[in-house]
Amino acid sequence: MSENVYLPQLARIVHIKDEVPGARAIKTFRVEFMNGGGFDHEPGQCAMISVFGKGESMISIASAPTITDYKQFSIMRSGRVTTAIHDMKVGDVIGVRGPYGNKFPVSDWKGRNLVFIGGGCGLAPIWPVIQTAVANRMDFDKITVFYGGRTSRDIMYAAELEKLRGQADVHLSIDSPEEGWEGYCGFVPANVMDKPQRPDNAIAITCGPPIMIKFVISNLREMGFADEQIYTTIENKMKCGIGKCGRCNVGTDYVCVKGPVYSWAQLKSLPQEY
Amino acid sequence: MEAILKRNRLGQWITELQERAEIYAPDFVEDTWEFAKVGRGATVELNHSNTVRPAKRFVFPQREVLYRFRIENSQSPKLTDTEPKVESTVVFGVRPCDGRAMVRNDRVFTCGFSDPYYQARHDNVVFVGLACNAPPSQNCFCVSVGGSPHSEDGLDVLMTELDGRYHVKALTDKGSDIVRSAGDLFQDVKAADMDDVGNAHAIALEYSQRSISSMEAVAAALRRNFDSPIWDKLARACIGCGACTYLCPSCHCFDINDEVTNKSPLTGARVRTWDNCQFPDFTMHSSGHNPREDTGARLRQRICHKLLYFVETHNMQQCTGCGRCITHCPVGIDIVKIANVMEEGVWQ
């Protein structure tokens, strides 16, 4: 029998970082494959995480593709599996299978301006793209990162974003004013409107809550971005990750295989059912 | 490879095959026609119209352990029973609609990533079809979706009942093997036998079935009417029981869950079960967001998957016209009626 696609590889949690507190907390888990396992991934791809006894959940791979020693997953406490993994500690073992899905076509974007727009947990899926762009800084023109959380405590990757300032324009936002906050106050789409981006030679990459994505895309269109210049990801409930279990489809596309990365031009041709 | 088997030798063929495989055939069990295991010496009649549950369970069982896990004293999890365990199986009395459904199931489970559980079962099962000679059931519509009462697609053997005998046609290596292995039970096919086969098939095609006039027009109408309010109207009676898809020979959706049998040490199995696009939590995110949040959207998914999406992806309907979803729907939702309503646009 050939390789069993449903069988996860075992991976040990070697580091856990609290990103965001609260009921919908976000933690970043660094895992190392055991028994010489592992796989390569492209920016935008996902993996199926197993907590044995609880089940599996599809999570985007948040570490850069160039990092081969470990993989990172930034996971929001939300359902059965993600709650279980939030209760795990360093040394515990999870299952990982993948990588699944398509990728951001970063190599097609050489020489262009990149505008990243993230909100909430939506920084994780685009983080490997940002890492890839920064690692190959000379290949790209201007790099701009917009990111927002509800409050200053909801900003994930806060230290990493500060470090990014040397290589990219970073514009952070929180929804309402707070004492000591120096960034923008208001929603992410408004922050983008406040610092209009030129569409010439640019690619915009956005990920976050659906309502944020909707307004970001509308604002980008207003700034003159064409549908082909806007990229986003969609997420749907998944069980198999390989286009068979039948639930993540949007029209003919199984998001686990054809997605999760779509240009707005591609997404517009699919039924509005995501 | 074609041969003639006298009707009174069917039992002997099955007995010989029982030396090497489990044999299943339609039987009237607990008030319903089901594929049931044939006991030693039991009589197989092959006089059913169709089974309530389709033949898909032989390649895609309703519940299947993918593997077992065990975590002892916070050591690494041990994963065992990771390979599918399958027995050689021969299934008699598979109707051509269920055979054609296997072609669809093969597309889903073997294209792209190959599904090892499906593949192992597929490699070890022989589907012996039985052509439909009798008038169709009230909801049969195989001809409208490109099939026929004697379609060979997806089968390993097709049997056609003639007067006092069967014409047996092997269609694959697996099929030839089970015929050849009992070679002395069979007789050569004569010209008169072929005439009888031709007649039986021709008569079967003359019976009226329910019909959809143009599948192309239906697909175009489905594409056009994705956002139509008609879906809410069509689904108004739906109680979301999911009988339609559970009984469908080509519905393949599944769930994967962990069944824990012991907390300490943590012991359990990762299990695959049939799932159902008519259930609200099928697509519901953990956030509560649901891309298909009402029965209209879920009915639209079922119909579009069958008659539009699968056509666009695999160039064939994912419906073979068996009519089970119509016959067994408790509220009378009817895919043929929906296809015709779509095509004619009568609600507009």
Automatic annotation (TrEMBL), chain A:
Cofactor: [2Fe-2S] cluster
Keyword Calcium belongs to the record: no
FAD-binding FR-type domain mapped to chain residues: 6-106
Molecular functions per Gene Ontology: 2 iron, 2 sulfur cluster binding; flavin adenine dinucleotide binding; metal ion binding; oxidoreductase activity
Record keyword Iron present: yes
Binding site for [2Fe-2S] cluster: C240, C245, C248, C256
SUPFAM superfamilies: Ferredoxin reductase-like, C-terminal NADP-linked domain, Riboflavin synthase domain-like
A GO BP entry: pyrimidine nucleotide biosynthetic process
InterPro entries to which the protein is assigned, alphabetical: Cyt_c3_hydrogenase_gsu, Dihydroorotate_DH_Fe-S-bd, FAD-bd_FR_type, FNR_nucleotide-bd, OxRdtase_FAD/NAD-bd, PyrK_electron_transfer, Riboflavin_synthase-like_b-brl
Pfam families: DHODB_Fe-S_bind, NAD_binding_1
Note describing how the cofactor binds: Binds 1 [2Fe-2S] cluster per subunit.
Record's keyword terms, sorted: 2Fe-2S, Iron, Iron-sulfur, Metal-binding
Highest taxon, organism lineage: Bacteria
The name this protein goes by in its record: Heterodisulfide reductase subunit F
Native source organism of the sequence: Blastochloris sulfoviridis
From TrEMBL, chain B:
Claim: DNA-binding is one of the keywords in the record: no
Ranges annotated as spanning the membrane: none
Keyword Iron-sulfur: yes
Record keywords: Iron, Iron-sulfur, Metal-binding
Annotated InterPro entries: 4Fe4S_Fe-S-bd, 4Fe4S_Fe_S_CS, Helical_ferredxn
Pfam families registered for this protein in UniProt: Fer4_22
GO molecular function: iron-sulfur cluster binding; metal ion binding
Domain annotation 4Fe-4S ferredoxin-type: ranges: 227-259, 310-341
PANTHER family: ANAEROBIC SULFITE REDUCTASE SUBUNIT A
Record protein name field: 4Fe-4S dicluster domain-containing protein
